[in-house]
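Lay summary. Proteins are chains of building blocks that fold into shapes, and those shapes determine what they do. In this project we predict the shape from the chain. Here is one chain we studied, written as its sequence of building blocks.
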Amino acid sequence: MQAHQRLYDDNGYEVMLFPLEYMNITQGENGQYSHQGTKNIDFIGWNSSGRVYQAPLYAPCTCKCIRLLDPNSNGYIFESTRPVHTPSGLQYINFTFAHDDNPNVRVGMTINQGDLIGNTGTAGNVT
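And here is the predicted shape, written in a compact code that computers can read:
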């Protein structure tokens, strides 16, 4: 996904997009470290030149920040404002972003699909 990218179906429903330009997983579900027994995945920014620090994360759909999950990791919970297309069909979704060193969202904010929602970072229990 790139800045300001949006994708809609013929009925005006958004299609959920991956929030980074490149997918580079550093720890998957049930990883060796902090993800034991969870459904969490860690990503870092990546491009053709290698790792990108503070890579931009874009809102995968129009969403509202509904809760601060963990102040130590700057983890926030988001909820779609309308049903969106996902691999499981058209539905409301919730998701979390964490580890942003300088988050630019606050609880109650609405962010449009494709707008900057944060950056990859190292806040909390990460390196």
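What the prediction tells us: The two ends are 25 Å apart (CA to CA).
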